[in-house]
Design goal:
mainly alpha, 81 residues, 0% strand, DNA polymerase, domain 1
Length: 81
């Protein structure tokens, strides 16, 4: 079984976030930037039902960005009402 299958353990789930934290800290980004990046990555993973990012392609990125654009447009329309 691949370590990136949907049935990976909690330890495997956090591994990618650990790698992201490490990469951001290596680049000396601010804590707030790190928190923002990790939050967006978590939202992306959750949007795609906890699939590992290495399993996804440009298609999934476009789906997420389209969802965000529609959500932002919907929210901005509501603020005008």
């Amino acid at each position: 079984m691949s370590p990136f299958s949907q049935n990976y353990t909690v330890k495997k789930k956090s591994k990618i976030l650990d790698q992201i934290h490490s990469a951001i800290r290596t680049r000396h980004y601010s804590l707030r930037t790190e928190e923002a990046y990790v939050n967006w990555i978590k939202r992306f993973i959750l949007f795609h039902k906890k699939r590992h990012p290495l399993e996804m392609s440009e298609k999934e990125i476009n789906q997420f960005l389209t969802y965000l654009a529609a959500f932002i447009c919907d929210t901005s329309v509501r603020s005008w009402i």
